[in-house]
Amino acid sequence: MRSTFFLTRKENMNVVRQYTLILFVIMLCIAGGGHRAAAFEAAELADGPVAKGHFKRQVTALFYQDNFSALEEMAVKLRSEKAKFPDGTWQLYSFYDGFAHPRNRSDEGWQRFLSRFDSWLARYPDSVTARTAAATAWMAYGWQGRGGDYADKVTPEGWRLFRERLQKAYDYASIKPKKLADDCPQRYDILLSLGVYQGMDRFHFESLFNEATSSFPEYNLYYYQTKAGYLRPSWHGSMAELQEFLSKTASLPPELGVKGIYAIIVATYWGLEFTSFEKDRIPWQLVKQGFEDLRRKAPRSPILLNMYCEVACRAGDRETARALFREIGDRPYLESWNYLLRPAEFLKWRDWAFAGEKTAWDTTFANGTEDFRQQFLCAEKGDAECQYQVGLMLERGDVVKKDLNESVIWFKKAALQGHRYAQLLLASYYFNTEKDGQRQYAEAARWDYIAAMQGDSNAASSLGRMYMSGNELAPDLIKAYVWYSLVTQWKDPHVKEIAAKLTPEQLGEAEKEISQLRAAINANMRAAEVRPIDPSTIKVPEFKQVPPVVFVAAPQLKLPTGNLLTGITWALSGGASFDGTTLTIKGKGDATAKMKVTPATDGCVLIGMRLRLPPTEQNGKAAPFLMASMMNGTFEESQRIYMGLVGPLPVSAQPVPWYKVHKVEANAFDGVKVRLGMVAQPEEQHTEFTDMRVMIFKTCEEASKAAEGYQRQ
Asked: Which of 255-269, 309-323, 506-520, 544-558 is predicted with the least confidence, judged by mean pLDDT?
């Protein structure tokens, strides 16, 4: 399908993916219609990538449920009525694209997915719909076998899988119904795409193209687009042939349905075949005319508006770009500017368009971009994927005002509908937030377990870590071994480490549980392909959370007191020495100390020192560095206070003060580890530390005041 069409022999999949998405969103807006620019709650779900995705997920759900009769009826209706989305593009195209995206993309998942076509064809042996859908799936499976790397890095096995699977696609698509009325226009587009991939000779490709355009002229947009791909220099043509073909399309009569395709192809191949309007001899006025023709048919299409604006910017047409930016306002469709939905590209070009003019544009998109609006409308319809995406957007804050509380609401909506990634993020939320003064580790483990039981390796690894550390859940090495062993996406190194600590009996017990859980996970994964698993149907064990450590706040310390260079044992290395009152570090030596302190709950720690550096002209670029971490009861690091250079410091004959204030989290903390050293200090030079303090205060305001007093001394 089109989603993989533009991966050429010389191009990396990651580079091309941006442009295939650009093509996809442009094609949504070719023939008219559009959305109503109304408030979220009053608007309908407009056309665009989100609406197309929602439609395809509905098609895929019917397929997984073996509801072949509904699929047959839907396809017949889409063909006979020439059903289109509000922008005029064919719903039939998205119908078939749904078969390129199985829910489980492992080889086992693909095989189960593909076997369903046998059942479909057994029930409808003459179905052109079933064969076209099967060809779509095999073509996508072929690209997965090839991989997304450059052609010269594709393995021989990758090429073999690619060829074999494309041949399977051809075997399905090449069966032509006896009557044109029973045929499908998308079948021809698949055959043309296979002609590109399989290296069809020019004569047979042209014959197939002519047959397709004469049989289904209303589907010409897709056929012309595929032929343009065939003529690309990286496939089977040349730049001259591609430019000649594009020029001819610009002069074709409107009834052929390809008006504006010149503009579309230039935008799609920008950065691949085209990099400069002048260098590549692209007439901007012809491209502009193409976009204007498209906009007359789809005057309210936001994604076409944004694409037109971007191309105008690249053409250097500041006047046109300014007019289009004013239409866009503060709600851009960022996917047409950057497929990662990052606003930097849009903001850069908007600044260029209005250079020298005073504007009051919103750069935060607090009310949400068009991308967010589309996902929000889809999410309100109950689509779990859209609910998950809304949560991500609210969490990141790139395309709408950041709102972590609201993001969790949407993650939970999706998680309750069986969305595995939303379940994983919900587990992360509970792990890092408090309720009634303590972290919600048990609830985090519950959602990790639900996701892990559906095959999520990150969730399994998280459970293993919590059981192993013993800081969140009651320590259980057998459980830790079990869950680390169930990580399938990578080989977890903890498995071997824990196995060395278990007895043969314990290992036998663990392996038995692993076998039982793996069977249950595989069954859940197969079931989730048909329909998402209701989390309430997964029997979750009880998780015993480690009780929180309760601390008594230390009294406020008054300066000057508590020099830690008195009575502290330092571990010295290199050129470091300690005489009981002064710590001296010569050259690249360092010193480390671990010390007990009186902990505080929700307080603030002040770490300060006085030190004397050699004059700058002697010491060059030397600088002291400090690593300070809070320690728990077993002297393991639990939270970092500071890691970095100390300074900048003035040159002085007297010791110079330096300090750092750090908020204390409510966790296990009754010690501090300090390591001091020097960076780039010549061997003959040395730095002296004459005072060091670690003090606990109830508030950071008090700590900061004490630090200021420490510096004034």
From this structure: 544-558
- Please, are residues 624 and 676 in contact by the beta-carbon 8 Å criterion? yes
Q: What angle do CA 66, 84, 391 make, to 5 degrees?
A: 70
Distance CA 697, CA 694 (A): 10
**Amino acid letter, 1:** M
Q: Are strands 671-679 and 623-631 parallel, antiparallel or unpaired?
A: antiparallel
Residue holding tokens 């969103």?
A: 25
Cα 17 from Cα 340, distance rounded (Å): 11
Contact (Cβ atoms closer than 8 angstroms) between residue 112 and residue 131:
no
Contacts 24+ apart (CB under 8 A), 195-202: 195/230, 196/5, 196/226, 196/229, 196/230, 196/235, 196/236, 197/139, 197/142, 197/162, 197/166, 198/163, 198/166, 198/167, 198/170, 199/236, 202/236
- Cis before residue 125, ω within 30 degrees of 0? no
Rounded to the nearest 5°, which phi and psi values hold at 697?
-125, 160
- 472 vs 442: CA distance, rounded Å: 8
Mean pLDDT of 667-681: 69
| SS3 label, residue 687 | strand
- Is it true that 2-35+43-353 and 571-712 share their CATH fold? no
pTM: 0.71
Residue 21 pLDDT > 60, yes or no?
Answer: no
Q: What is the CATH architecture assignment of 571-712?
A: Sandwich (2.60)
Sign, CA torsion 595/599/602/608: negative
Measured CA to CA in angstroms, residue 598 lies from 241, 287, 383 at distances of: 79, 72, 52
What does the alpha-carbon distance between residue 165 and residue 110 come to, in Å, rounded to a whole number? Answer: 12
Measured in Å, how far apart are the chain's first and last C-alpha atoms? Answer: 73
CATH number at 2-35+43-353: 1.25.40
CA distance 543 to 441: 9
DSSP class of 253: -
Phi-psi region of 620 (alpha: psi -120 to 50; beta: other; left: phi over 0): left
Domain extents in the chain: 2-35+43-353, 418-537, 571-712
Query: What pLDDT digit, counting tens, does each position of 183-225 carry?
Result: 999 999 999 999 999 999 999 999 999 999 999 998 988 999 8
Task: Classify the C-alpha dihedral 111-116-121-122 as positive or negative.
Answer: positive
Q: Alpha-carbon distance 634 to 33, whole Å?
A: 67
Q: Is the separation of the CB atoms in 64 and 530 below 8 Å? A: yes
Indicate the SS3 state at residue 270.
Answer: strand
Strands (E), 369-448: 434-435, 438-439
How much is the average pLDDT of 4-16? 31
Instruction: Specify the higher pLDDT residue, 123 or 148.
Output: 123
pLDDT in tens, 71-129: 999 999 999 999 887 766 799 999 999 999 999 999 999 999 999 999 999 999 999 99
